[in-house]
Structures
1.
Amino acid sequence: MVSVAIALAFVPLVLALALRSRHWVVLVARVALGWLRDRLSSVPREHRALQYLLTHAVPGDPRHVLLTLDQWSRRCEHLSCVGPEKGRVVERVLSARSPQRVLELGTSCGYGAVLLARALPPGARLLTVERDPQRAAMAEKVIRLAGFDERTVQLIVGPSEEVIPQLRSRHRMDTTDFILMEHGKSCYERDLRLLERHRLLAPGATVMADHVLVPGAPRFLRYARGSGRFRCRLHRATLEYCQGITDGIAELRYTGRDAGNVVGTQRECGGNTLGMG
């Protein structure tokens, strides 16, 4: 009887923990099911999403292409992308900056490229880089389905650490005004350093980095804050298609100042200071 009473005493705690973690349980289950389908089927998840897109999306309408991908991700299988909520943040910042030379690292399924391309000012150009050839092939179809040709959106297949040093010589991008990072989170800091080293960041350039809280990019955030060359802001939002999980997208403004005025840079982050330990 005593052991039963002790067990019953823990029931409220167990229920509370289960309720708090239910969103994570749902996310893990959806990702696991997608992984299992990938293993059991000869058709990868991205290709299943593409088939859905080709069936339901309106060709030449980038807004409808994005809405259809959102619909697939909510109803069918989880796709990791910037998503609609953080996407609105990206569009708002991009529209305010009105950049002419835009770089995306991590094309994945093409969601971010379509999002960026539809918000570009007239005459602007987007280069998007994807390491995986299969994902790149799908993204190419998505971008063209949305109505963007190679003059507006050029997709480059290759590792970002190899592409970045070649942007000026092979891809005619002397500097870039706006960068969206959506690739491997462990690559964020390395690639930001590469962009600086090769003098590819124009004065006042904006760097936006997705998923800096989930799964997280702590080294990137520490470097951005500590270098003294960026004004930093964190836009808090929910993880794409998971309303109960908090994520964030970082916005960096390149000042080009030498490292050393770190105190001033930290103050400029204000109430939205990046969560960098």
2.
Amino acid sequence: MGSSSFSGVKRIIFWDCLCVLGAQKCPQRWMPVALWRTGLLLCFLSLCACLEEECVLGVVGRPVSLPCFYPKLQGLVNFSIEWRRDSEVVLRSVWRNSENVETLSANSATIPADAAQTGNVSLELPAVDPKEHRMNYSLIVVSEGKQSAALCTACLRIAASFSPPQLQREEASPGHETAFFCHSTGGFPEPAVYWLINNTEKPPEGSVRTRTAALPDSRLFNITSHLTVNVSRNTNVSCTIENQPMNESLTSTSYGVKSSPVVIRASEAMWIFSTALCAVVGVMVVVGVAYQVHLDRISKRKKREYQHQQGNRGYKWRNRLREENEAMKPEAKETDV
């Protein structure tokens, strides 16, 4: 990497932007105003994206490499290399006759052992410490008592993943507000917190309170967010922890007590079965009552017939007995007076 502040890609984007700006001032009336405005916006976004790519992402606790190649280093004999973080020297390496004779480094930072032969003087950091969100590094070469300008510059962006958020829901009595607690730990830098109600609605203003606490040992962050809102029990509430440097969005959702379609279908089937069972039982009861009434009628009719038969038998028996009695009486004798 040379001493120029723009890389090859940056130069192309830079000249494209200049061309667009120049086209704005051209007296050509056929060029629509919206066209050059769009081109200017695109080149600006491209330049910003290119500048953003210059930052190397370092994850806390993991090694990271800051790339730097300086081919002219192969022609030097006696020189020293310094990697600096702002004004602080992170690594100083002294070379004599293209051989490394001394290396002083902070936090065990290193460069390749064959840097003088290959021109690869990339800085290797064994672990990233979340001191700041971004840190700028630069490479300086001192040869024959002369210090060069910054031959390589690198932006190190520090980040660490947060744990999946834990979302708790505290139900309130009817007519009162429900409290939600969203908690996540061990991330860097401070994240953004978003709440959604039923996946679409934002909570009312003033209903969210978020607190971030830095851990003293690791300098990582714990975050706790509180949402107090008046919602029904079947409302879904989501909490999202967004860590932009890590390009991570972690979401946790508290689902309401609304029945799922499977439960609803099961309830409907049970209701239909209960209704049919009640109808069958009702029909059986009606049939049973009707049959019992029919039996009672038959029993009564037989009883009457029996009583009638017994009555006829008694009448016949009495008539026969009377006849027998009359037949046994002596006939009255006639006497002359």
3.
Amino acid sequence: MFLLHRRLPLLARTTFLCNSMEPALTTTAASSFGGSPRLAALAQQLRMYKPPPSSSFDDDAEEMQADQESAGKVVSQVGFQESMTPVPKDPERFRPKRAAVLICIFEGEEGDLRVILTKRSSRLSTHSGEVSLPGGKAEEDDKDDGMTATREAEEEIGLDPSLVDIVTSLEPFLSKHLLRVIPVIGILKDKKSFNPKPNPAEVEAVFDAPLEMFLKDENRRSEEREWMGEKYLIHYFDYRTGDKDYTIWGLTAGILIRAASVTYQRPPAFIEQCPKFKYPKMN
């Protein structure tokens, strides 16, 4: 059974929970984040994060060629790191499209770290009505993944890219049909300056949730499924804000579990379990 439990990299002994910050950090750097020393320290911590490299493979791609449609149906539900997946990298056989999502973190009124989420429009042809992170496919003019994520966030929810300080990117995740999704972590410099303006063609609602929620076993449920003889878990997080109830699951939940693990520098209180991806030979 394949477990997604890994040792998180040490980040030069820096943690945003630490109160022993240098004076320069609490003044100059903090001024860039609405005067918050905590966000300034978090930005410093996350800039040191280096995602692990993607898996390496044998030269014989025929031995590893995937049934991409079958695999895609699984990964779109589970949400897992590409570095954990034996996807062949023969450029003539595997050309995944690239996309990026924005994990936009800010400090809530009670001092907790929160992340901006959206509920997709019920009129969309795919994943309609589901909770997701702002983002989408890369365009030729995008200079990097940060630009893709912030451009899409501006189009979807009216988030001005100048309000977001991109601090790091996580390892790629795989989505349906093996779309390569890059989670980009950004810190919202001034929450008061952000007035959500959801694009009705794409977004039904904009809300935020505590990031630490995705490390806790509270309000979480899971569903066991099987693929090619291997059992795996799909995680669901139930969240209520105001009079609205949301369920965060699948790829979005997987990305947020990883983002919370990196941010808080600890694993979740539950086991993440994905199937072993046994790619058959092509006939």
4.
Amino acid sequence: MDLIPGSCPRCCPCCLRLLPPARPATMGLELYLDLLSQPSRAVYIFAKKNGIPFQLRAVDLLKGQHLNSEFLPANSLQRVPVLKDGDFLLNESVAILIYLSIKYQTADHWYPSDLQARMRIHEYLGWHGDCIHSTFGVSLWAQVLAPLIGIQVSEEKLKHNRAAMDRALQFMEDKFLRDKAFLTSQQVTLADIMALEELMQVVVLGCDLFEGRPRLAAWRQRVEAFLGADLCRETHSFIWSIRELAANKKLPDPPPEMRSRMLLRIARIP
């Protein structure tokens, strides 16, 4: 089943999910992505914003393509994003962003050469991995993914998750943003695009995380203004449609090999 109605132009990033299976490439940078994935979107935005040439290899997570060797290179971790640069294979979004920053000598503000400024980014990204990614991903699981396999996340767990998000947002403001323009400095860095994509995963599902948080709302506006409206719209076009697609039952039924993984992930929601 197609995930996107046929009315979308085929060049639209939301339709990247409809592309045919990836064919092996002998040279050049390849990025294996699904724009449903927050880390995939961060890598996509970074590569596009910096004019880094790459071949997009679309991987549809909902169809379980990340479990199929036809769609991901051998020795991947069976998740996206994945970078393949010739014979070099790299998993994990943070490692990929750093690799792209250094190899393509992007502007210094993204991943500064100054050691202490660079460590501020790593400080945030370490906290992000522990406190943001798993917490802010729950909304998509509860509202979209769990219902695909007939599971309902309890109201108690949803209230617990919302409280955890509120605490994380407050800490993000007080510890990292404070009176700066961006999370770790006065210029946008890798930390900001990683954070933006995680928060957007909740916003598109109808939860305004920025209400009553003017500092964080202003930060979001600065990041999106720096990236550009066109690039943000391009990158977020599919995720903005996910709630409507789910409501209209236009998402595919996960294959059997996905069910056990999904059940395990849902069971881990605190």
